[in-house]
Every structure is written in structure tokens, then in C-alpha cells.
Amino acid sequence: MSMTHLQLRKLFSEYWESKDHKLIPAIPLIPKDDPTTLFTGSGMQQLVPNLLGDIHPLGKRLYNIQRCIRAQDIEEVGDNRHDTFFEMMGNWSLGDYFKREQLNWFWAFLTRELKLPEEKLYVSVFGGTKEIPADEESVEIWKKIGIPEKRIVRYNTKTNWWSRAGAPDNMPDGEPGGRTSEVFFEFIDRPHDPMFGKICHPNCDCGRFLEIGNSVFMEYKKHQSGLVELPAKNVDFGGGLERITMALENQNDLFLTNIFSKIVRTIEKVTGKKYSGYQKSIRIISDHLKTSVFLIRETVTPSNKEQGYVLRRLLRKTAFNLHKIGVNLNQTPSLEEIVESVIDTYGNIYFDKERDLKQIVPVIKDEIDKFGRALSRGIKEIEKITEKDLENKAFYLYQSYGLPLELLEEIFVNLKKKVNKEKFREEFNRHRKLSRDSSSGKFKGGLADVKEQTIKYHTATHLLHQALFDVLGDGIRQEGSNITSDRLRFDFSAPKKPEKADLEKAERIINQKIKEDLAVKFKIIPKQEAFKIGARAFFKERYPDLVKVYLIGSANSPQDAYSKEFCGGPHVKNTGVIGSMEIYKFEKIGSNLYRIYAREKLPRPNGRGFN
Ligand code: SER
After folding, report:
1. What is the pLDDT of residue 395?
2. For labelling alongside 85, which of 6, 106, 302, 529 has CA 20 to 30 A away?
3. Rounded mean pLDDT of 102-121?
4. 523-558 tens-digit pLDDT
5. Has this prediction a pTM greater than 0.85?
6. Which amino acids bring their CB within 6 angstroms of ligand 1?
7. At 403, which helix (H) or strand (E)?
8. For ligand 1, what atom is nearest to the CA of residue 216?
9. Where are the alpha helices (DSSP H) in 385-499?
10. CATH number of 5-255: 3.30.930.10, 3.30.70.270, 3.20.20.190, 3.40.50.1820?
């Protein structure tokens, strides 16, 4: 059965609604108050506290469709199925149903609702290790459903254990995880590629099999060096919208499904190159531009740090691949049309077309233009380099012009210069590993170290948000926020540029509220009531009918509280525990868009700088 991704979303939602699940709104791609990961990488991210035992306001049965980015997959993009931006369809049981219902229901969704042919579906279960027993219960359930033994495979922790940090040994203290059972779709027309091993099997990487859904049975938590049981047995299911679409279309190439076809066609039109002749590059361009569009939409700008660095890499790789297929970067192609095709693909789900085009296109164009210029300069410099200096200089070229390895090698060959590829690659990989460690969804030195400080900054962010309203009036709107253990960052739009005096005033208000040692409490109330009392919502999130609202000061008569905000928490109990705050940096990041950095005041030698 073929259907568009829009129809698939609808079916998925109706299915879980019919099983009494409540929709939890997706969170932004840049986790708002979570400094432990750069990007939202799975649907369960917002539910970590609930999987660990906190009550969720919407109950025990939940579902959603969550936009995600896995930056660690950037280098994989180019094959038939990898992408950096994807959407995960998820359902959860917080201590309610468990394996039997989950496996039966997901199977029924695939075979009855989506009508995928049963004989093309394989399942995997956890086969057991010294520490963790095999999941025989799931085997029995699958057999009862009618799956023959030959389509049930057993794997170990590498593939059938899931936590945000991977295998149990890598999990930080307090992190939840569990054994999994996955479902795979077989593209029967695609022959096995022996490059990936002698025998093909569901988890083989040759592309004949595709994982389309992962049921995680979250019943453990890391504690010291071992695993302990969670207070409840939870289900955390995630299935890639893109991959299920591939199965539905029986289309082994993700870039030819209805999720990418419009984007790919537009790239063909704009560049004048055919997908069939330039598959790898066009796949990279379409994925990376799409991911960039989503990131810029959430106010990320290219930089050398964190999310901004990932965006810069994506755009440079886009530029490089445009160059590679013969596009002259000094006459920038019509990127606007490609961006438009991304926005059109997602209908009205994520974008406000006119506004977003205006915000997104200039950022992309600027970065690609810059790269085009760096490329011309880099080529001139390479011409001057003597062969014996090549390897050392090559690394310098990569660092200073951002020219990727592949491109440098190509230029060397064109110039008939020989380079010791191995030596260069060694240096290159060392550098890349360093940047990957700081940019992939890694866990910083244990969640616990950073937690206390980030909770303070989270409450301080609410104070800042309200203080900006006090000073600048109702015309402002929160556009994003981000917290690390060193500082908070707050993005907002305002009709006119705030003056230095405005920021000083906001800072004074925040510190006044800290001094007053106001109580911070939350209430779970209907959305309408929350709007009525004037609670501030973050417009990029859609909220469920029942919401959690955090109140700072006067919780007994919420309308009088100083700050009221839709928020999942956590927060400090009293504002007095936050040290005195300073706004130490202010910048304009787009038209009518501003960014504030603030932190607790310490004696700092360099003072602060407004620009
Ligand atoms: N958290 C699991 C995953 O990301 C299932 O939702 O695969």
C-alpha cells in the first residue's frame, strides 16, 4: 500500500488514540534546558524523568512524532537510507502495558493498518549476555503472533539493548535503558552485498534489510557499576517515519520516496544534474540542506561551536558536493528554490513559509558564498605548496579554509601533486575525532555534575523571560533557549533593538527576584486555564490539553505570580539559591532576532562585553 508521509502520520496518530494514548507535543530540535545533548535524538528524550518514575500529566499511555537529529550519522549519509534529520514515531507505556501488548499492537499496526506483507517482516530479540538474561518472553510472544522461528533472530547488547548512551558500560549513573525487540523489512529484490559479510541477516548493513521499529523495554537504570530495576516496567517505542515510508513504498532508496522526491527533483532542476548520475552527492545535498533548514528555523547560526559547528559542517559539505557535481559556487545557484521544496514537503507541519524563507535563505546563502570564496583562495594557496610540504600544509588547509579531505585530495590530483594520503588521513581523523567528541550527542562527565547548576539556570531563564516582558513590553517573543552548566542563552524577537539600558534594567529585575527568594511551584491545569492566567507558552511547541505551568512567587493565586510559564521543569524550589546573575553578552542574530547570554556573577577578569 502506498501512502504519503502525511497520511502515515495520520494513521499512526489515530491508531494510538484508539488505544487510549495521549499525544505529547514534540520538543524542539535543540533541547531547551538539557545541556547533556546537542540535539534531540529520540522521542523519549523529554520523557527521561517519567521513565525514571515521575508522574506525567497526560497519564501512562503516550505517543508522538518527534523531529530528531543524529549528528553522529553525518558521515554515513550518501547511502540508500542514512539521514541526519529524521522523524521518530513513538509510543510509550509508563508502567502500564508491557511486552505482550506492545509487540501485538505494533505488529497489528504494520500488518493490518499499513498492510505490510508479513513474509517480508523479521524480528529480533535480546539473546542474553553474562549479566543480562535473554528475552525469551518476547520470543514466545512473537511465536504466538505467528512468526516462524526462522524469522526471529537473536542479537546481543550491540543491537538489542538501547539507552541514550548505548551499551550498559557506556551509560552514566542514573540513565535508563533496556532490552529491545526490533522489526525489519526485507527488500527481496535487493541482492546481498558480500562486502558486508558472507551471510545476510536482518542487522547486516548491506541494505537488503531495514530496521523499521524498535520496542525498548525500559526496566533498568544504571547504578554505580551495575544495573538496577526501575520503579516500573516501561515501553519506549520508536520507529523512523522515513524508514516506514520506504517499506510502504517498497522503495529501497529513501531519496526516491515521497519524503525526499520533491527536494531531489528541485536539486536536479537547479543544478542541471541528474540524480541517476550523481546519486551520492545529491543525497548529501538534499539531506544536509534539509537538516540545515530545520536548524536555522530554530535559530541556530553557523559557528565554530556546538550546534553552530554542526550546521557549518552540513553547509560546507553541501557546498562541496555542489562544487563536486560541477556547480560554480561563485555564481550561487538558486538555493531558495531548494529551501522552498523542503518547506513544501512538510506542508504546514513545521513551517510558516513566508516568514521562514526570509529567515533561512540568507543564512544558507551567506555560508555557501563564504565557502565558495575559501575554496578559490585555498586552491590558489595549494598551487604554491611544494610537494614535500603537502601533508603538513594539507591539515592547515583543512583547518583554515574548511576544505574537506576529499576535496583537498581531488585538488591535489588535478594539480598533479602527490600527497601521502595515509599520513594526511591520520591527522585528519585525529582532528575529526576531537570535533566529533565535542559535537555529537555525547554525555558530559555524568549527568549529575551539571544538573544542579543547570536547574538554577533554568529558573533564571524564566526570570529573564518575564523581566524582558517587563522592560520591553508585549512585542517580544521567545524564539529559543539553551542551557549549559556555564551559562544560559535566550533568543527572542523584538520589534526594535533593545538598548544597553534595557538589558541592565532586566538584569536588575532578575536579581531583585532572586533576592526576594520567591517560591517556585508548578500546577497541572487545563491549557485554556493556563492561557487565561497569562502563562507564557513557547510558540514553537504545541501543547496538550493538560499542561504543567511553573509559577514563581504567589502560587496560591497564580494570576499574581511574577512568572508563569508552560514548562516541564525541573526548577529550584526558591529563587534565593541562584547566585546574582549578569547578562554578559548580547547579540543580534537575525532580523529582529536577538540573543542574550547570562550567568551567575563571579569575579571575572575580562568583565563583560556588549556588542
Ligand atoms: N528510544 C528508542 C530509539 O530511539 C525507541 O524509541 O530507538
Report:
1. 67
2. 106
3. 98
4. 888 888 888 888 998 765 677 777 888 999 976 788
5. no
6. 42-44, 90, 162, 214, 216, 236-238
7. none
8. 5
9. 390-401, 405-414, 421-439, 447-472
10. 3.30.930.10
